[in-house]
Automatic annotation (TrEMBL):
Keywords: Ribonucleoprotein. Residues 37-127 form the Ubiquitin-like domain. GO terms for cellular component: U12-type spliceosomal complex. One of its GO terms (biological process) is mRNA splicing, via spliceosome. This is U11/U12 small nuclear ribonucleoprotein 25 kDa protein. It comes from the Eukaryota. SUPFAM superfamilies: Ubiquitin-like (SSF54236). It comes from Amazona aestiva (Blue-fronted Amazon parrot). InterPro entries: SNRNP25, SNRNP25_ubiquitin, Ubiquitin-like_dom, Ubiquitin-like_domsf. It holds the Pfam family Ubiquitin_4.
């Protein structure tokens, strides 16, 4: 065995970068204590994204949580790093039970959205 091979064998393994953020840990703790809920956002292609928001979240809070979820997923998978969310919200909207979630200030509870409910991410029709 040559010196180079021994050096490679005795080298300490590099620690892996953590894949879980402090925000995600905080969200899971809030879920366990009943302070948050999971809203499943369904895309047209059938993909479902579980998004965690606080119990008294507004539609805007859900949109921000969805944005953060997508950004984290893209960073982990090495996909596109930048999306124009201004374009996305001009082109798509969220619906629940056939009703558009149009008012960003309105609480999810006012739309009847509860823990583990599904919200659809649908393309807007052209006018």
């Amino acid at each position: 065995m040559c010196i180079r091979d021994r050096a490679r064998l005795t080298r300490r393994p590099r620690p892996c970068r953590p894949q879980v953020t402090a925000e995600e840990i905080g969200s899971q703790v809030a879920l366990e204590y009943g302070q948050a809920m999971t809203v499943r956002v369904c895309k047209a292609d059938g993909e479902t994204m579980p998004v965690v928001v606080v119990q008294n979240a507004s539609v805007l809070d859900l949109k921000k949580a969805l944005r953060r979820h997508v950004q984290l997923r893209q960073a982990r998978q090495g996909g596109v790093q930048h999306l124009s969310w201004k374009y996305i919200w001009r082109t798509y909207h969220l619906t629940y039970g056939g009703e558009k979630l149009a008012d960003d200030r309105k609480k999810l509870r006012e739309y009847g959205i509860r823990n583990r409910d599904e919200v659809s991410f649908i393309k807007k029709l052209r006018k």
